[in-house]
Amino acid sequence: MKPLAYGTVALLLAGALSPAWAQAPADAHDSHHPSAASAAQGAQGNPGSTSADQSELSEGEITRWDPRTLKVTLRHGEIKNLDMPPMTMVFRVNDASMLAPFQPGDKVRFRVERRTTGYFITRLEAAR
Q1: Does residue 62 contact residue 103 with C-beta atoms inside 8 Å?
Q2: What is the residue-averaged pLDDT of the chain?
Q3: Max CA separation in the chain (angstroms)
């Protein structure tokens, strides 16, 4: 009998878990700001939906970004449209060209939306 690889064992264990428990890690981030969870539920049906006026931008600083994975890490202030407190967090972008003009250490203003697949930056500009 051939031994199972670690990945196979992990997949078997994950499949044995109840659906509610298996989804918990994706929703765990919202546990410390429940208003964002309720806003997210409204936006999940329509990935492009917004929960507030597009002119409302948050401020932050890029700590790193990876155009290959389309991810950017921001040390940010409060994100009012998501009722999210200041923290450092990884966000996604749809297009690497959005990150091209920026480097780690740059101060930015941005708009982020919660989608079923995570938090996406929908607008990004240099802070003035």
Answers
A1: yes
A2: 73
A3: 65
Q: CB neighbours of 99 closer than 8 A, spacing ≥ 6?
A: 65, 67, 72, 93, 124
**Residue 62: C-alpha distances to residues 53, 54, 126 (Å):** 23, 21, 10
60 C-beta neighbours (distance < 10 Å), count = 27
- Beta bridge partners of residue 114, listed in sequence order: 119
Q: How far is CA 41 from CA 1, 75, 83, 99, 100, in A?
A: 47, 25, 14, 28, 31
pLDDT tens across 62-94, in order? 999 998 999 999 999 999 999 999 999 999 999
Distance CA(92)–CA(69), nearest Å, equals 8
Rounded to an integer, what distance in angstroms lies between the CA atom of residue 8 and that of residue 58? 42
Give the type of residue at 44.
Q
The pLDDT assigned to 127 comes to 93
